[in-house]
Amino acid sequence: MSIRCPEFDASTLEAMTGDDPRQLRRFYLMFQAVCRWQHEALCREASQGHFEEAARCARRLKVSCFTVGALALGHAYSRIESVASRWNGDELRAGLADIEAQLEYTLANLGDIAVGIAGREMPVPRRAAAEARP
Fold first, then answer.
1. CA-based angle 40:118:37, to the nearest 5?
2. What is the C-alpha to C-alpha distance for residues 30 and 84, in angstroms, rounded to an integer?
3. Which residues of 1-40 are buried (b: 16+ CB within 10 A; e: fewer)?
4. Under 8 Å CB-to-CB from 30, ≥6 apart: which residues?
5. What angle, rounded to 10 degrees, do the helices at 89-121 and 51-68 form?
6. CA-to-CA distance for 51 and 56, rounded, in angstroms?
7. pLDDT, tens digit (0-9, with 9 covering 90-100), for 13-45
8. Cα 32 to Cα 122: distance, rounded to the nearest angstrom
9. pLDDT, tens digit, for every residue of 63-113?
10. CA 20 to 30 Å from 62, out of 5, 46, 77, 115?
11. 3-state SS string for the chain
């Protein structure tokens, strides 16, 4: 049984933090860095057969994904957590291989969102100030 959900829900993070562009951008950029770091830790633990620690990494990733609204990726990490907690190495490696493209896609989209937010927070120069420039 697969869970159908939207790929990304921007209102999730806004509901928790408010709609301050600087705060949202900061969370998205921080998520990108931490997610990549945690995913690498998950892969490392899985490759060494440390299933319990791999499940912990997947749980942290799942919660982080749901927090920023990366719902599909969060559900994917939820499946990885379940597989790791069953100590199934072959299924875990296959699941990690399958999640790579989705991870890159989500991180790239969050980068685009962060850039878009940065554009919203840039002050627009006043007309008088712009005309006063030499």
1. 5
2. 26
3. eeeeeeebbeebbeeeeeeeeeebbebbbebbeebeebbe
4. none
5. 30
6. 9
7. 778 777 788 888 888 888 888 999 999 999 999
8. 22
9. 999 988 889 999 999 999 999 998 888 899 899 998 998 899 888 888 777
10. 115
11. CCCCCCCCCCHHHHHHHCCCHHHHHHHHHHHHHHHHHHHHHHHHHHHCCCHHHHHHHHHHHHHHHHHHCCHHHHHHHHHHHHHHHCCCHHHHHHHHHHHHHHHHHHHHHHHHHHHHHHHHHCCCCCHHHHHHCC
Q: What angle do CA 93, 99, 101 make, to 5 degrees?
A: 130
Q: CA-CA distance, 35 to 22, in Å (whole number)?
A: 20
Q: d(Cα 86, Cα 97) in Å, to the nearest integer?
A: 18
- Taking CA atoms, 79 is separated from 58, 60, 89, in Å, by 9, 13, 13
By CB atoms closer than 10 A (0-12, 13-18, 19+), residue 112 is exposed
